[in-house]
Amino acid sequence: MKAFQRRVDDEEKIEAKDWMPEAYRRTLVRQISQHAHSEIIGMQPEGNWLTRAPSLKRKAILLAKVQDEAGHGLYLYSAAETLGVSRDQMVADLLSGKAKYSSIFNYPTLTWADIGTIGWLVDGAAIMNQIPLCRCSYGPYARAMVRVCKEESFHQRQGFDILVELCRGTDEQKAMAQDALNRWWWPSLMMFGPGDKDSKHSAQSMAWKIKRFSNDELRQKFIDTTVPQAEFLGLRVPDDDLRLDEDTGHYEFGEIDWQEFHDVLAGNGPCNKQRMETRTRAQEDGRWVREAARAYAIKQP
Ligand code: FAQ
pTM here? Predict the structure, then answer.
């Protein structure tokens, strides 16, 4: 155990076949599989707009983004499989409700501005959280994150670009962008997880260098980066308590509604039921493809 911690402290990467404490393995399986499920469920809110994108170009870009999310899910399932858990087991845990996915994907995408806002805020928050994961102590997860982050940064740019266009458009378009920001701002802050004092896994995950920053540190970085972007767009962040502390250079912000966060985690968000039904149906509909692929694989010499 001491030798393991020394390797971690020395910034050595832990690889799949190396000895590791059972709790380290379990923590990684939990986090990586939750991350993979988030990417896969995260395709639903945006997929909802593929047939309604306002131009061929926007449709092609959105299609590429949604396909990227599928790819991220697949790299992440592969990274988790190196820890000895099967993909079938991970999917079964998602469908039974045992495994979580990110709270953010339980909110609806009501207008086209929501697609811009997801790219800007949700991918923006995802990058803030995932850049440090490129230095995670577990090699396969860290390496998967490098490519994921490159793609997420394109996603963030495409979302911001949609909002720039809407905010320079008609009053109605700008109002649509403001309405989307009003609905997505607080759920985006919740993506970083509970505050540090309530984050049960953080201390151990930081000691193992799975996490490099705490939930609150990353949330603060996200707010500090994003508020000036809202100002550039001419949009108002829906927080009456938001103000820049000139001394620290950080924004102070209002109280997060943690009751809402816990309700969403308990399955009572606006779209939890719909997301799980869609995912369960997709799994059923894809059964014949998996069976055919298995039968074909068995026939190979
Ligand atoms: N939603 O002790 P902590 C994306 C749970 S990818 C749901 O602080 P930890 C790309 C947590 O699991 C977005 N559950 O836990 C995209 C734990 O419950 P458990 C996903 C949450 O692990 C963009 C409990 O609360 N990203 O968006 C959430 O140290 C656009 C206590 O929490 C990742 O998964 C939440 N927001 O820190 C796709 C990144 N927060 O498991 C499509 C990797 C916390 O004991 C479109 N994950 N919980 O039952 C992480 O960095 C960490 O797992 C945290 C949570 C920071 C999420």
Answer: 0.96
Give pLDDT tens digits for 86-113.
999 999 999 999 999 999 999 999 999 9
Ligand 1 midpoint to CA 53 (Å): 29
| Amino acid (1-letter code) at residue 164 | V
* pLDDT, tens digit, 9 for 90 and up, residues 179-214: 999 999 999 999 999 999 999 999 999 999 999 999
Contacts of 227 (CB under 8 A, 6+ apart): 237, 242, 244, 251
Atom of ligand 1 nearest to the CA of 130: 39
- Distance (Å) of CA 121 to CA 52, 89, 127, 284: 21, 31, 10, 32
Query: What are the percentages of helix, strand and coil residues in the chain, rounded to 5?
Result: 70, 5, 25
The finding on whether 215 has its CB within 6 A of some atom of ligand 1 is: yes
Strand-pair category, 250-252 with 243-245: antiparallel
